[in-house]
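We close this part of the discussion by returning to an individual protein. Part of our work consisted of pairing the sequence of a single chain with a tokenised description of its backbone. The amino acid sequence and the backbone structure tokens for this protein are reproduced below.
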Amino acid sequence: MEPHGPGSVLFGCELTANTKSYTFQVDEEDDSDHILSLSVVCLTDGAKDECNVVEVVGRNHENQEIAVPVANLKLSCQPLLSLDNFKLQPPVTFRLAAGSGPVHLAGWHQIVHREDASFEEDDDLSEEEEELPPIMPAKK
């Protein structure tokens, strides 16, 4: 799915000295698949010239909480970082591990309804079958 396609809504949150974390989660009863694609993290108006470290807090394959730094921003040398639609599955928490911000995260919340996903998969399979050229015998 394209980041700006149907079923996508704009996402944004701000981390500050007063609001050090933000958790993105969806309703557990929702039968849709949700993907959060982060596009950019940047310092916003009022930021000091200090290191601002943003972490993503999630769970690993053993269901243990892990924190991974994804950005280290400083106003004088790195005020913005492109994350190239870095994909995450909710629930996920963003935490300002160092600095006072404000740091803004922006991206797209992609929603794929399960019946849409199975329909798209069927379409993809039929397209792949149609695109394959016939196998020709080797020339000697």
Observations:
- The helical segments are 114-131.
- The CA atoms of residues 125 and 131 lie 10 Å apart.
